[in-house]
Specification:
Length: about 300
Amino acid sequence: MTRPIVHSHYHADSGTWSHVVADPSTRAAAIIDPVLDFDLKSGHTATTFARKLLECVASHGYRVLWILETHAHADHLTAAPFLQGALAKADAGTSAPKIGIGLGIRDVQATFKAIFNLEADFAADGSQFDHLFADGERFRIGDLDAEIIATPGHTSDSLSYRIGDCVFVGDSLLMPDSGTARCDFPGGDAARLFASIQRLYQLPEATRVFVCHDYGPNGREPRCESSIGEQEDHNIHVRDGVSEREYVGVRTARDATLAVPTLLFPSVQVNIRAGRLPPAENNGTSFLKIPIDRF
């Protein structure tokens, strides 16, 4: 099995890890869960972090085939369309990388179209993305084999990408000392997440696990990599011997104490559009909504 090269970049403001995954032989690559800088107080966006990903790609001579989302994130805005445009311009004459996400995005879009009362012509069919991945679907990144593992529970569209000896799990698993993702968003379900994690635990113990978020509990430095074996042995929420009932109880109690993510409303409205802003209104400006007394 070809061992991918993984370059992980940390976005401190949102606690997010974005990953550049590359085939060492062909230099084909994918970018997973990229972040667009967003200042909530001013409403300003910036591409400072995303340009670091571009610098990584350029410095190693990678050709990006895919920009992959593990789900429609609720804590950061995706930089997928910016990266897609920048990479297409840099590699004129080659196809732009495709933006991919799981088929479950349709359910997420339908749910939040109603919550935000989005424009009537907003299509809740996933057509904003270039490709919708089904559970078990296989594809290639150069000589790297890649497989989709649907891992709903945190959200209904959550999936994991198994690429070579790595699996990129989004928010489903955190580092072992942080546990697992919350399940109290619309479409979330702790029992489904438990089942999803059991699927991940069927992978070989040496499989490298790359997470999307880490907040450095107890003052340690943020980290993004563990292994299936480490997760099974040490994950504080779902480790060997923990039952579904026990996990659901712990997860539900924990979720009841958590605040709404700071960027929930901006993130979801943009991310269900594959990273594009809502249509500009008649003054040429895009606006984001805040539902009052809904959450």
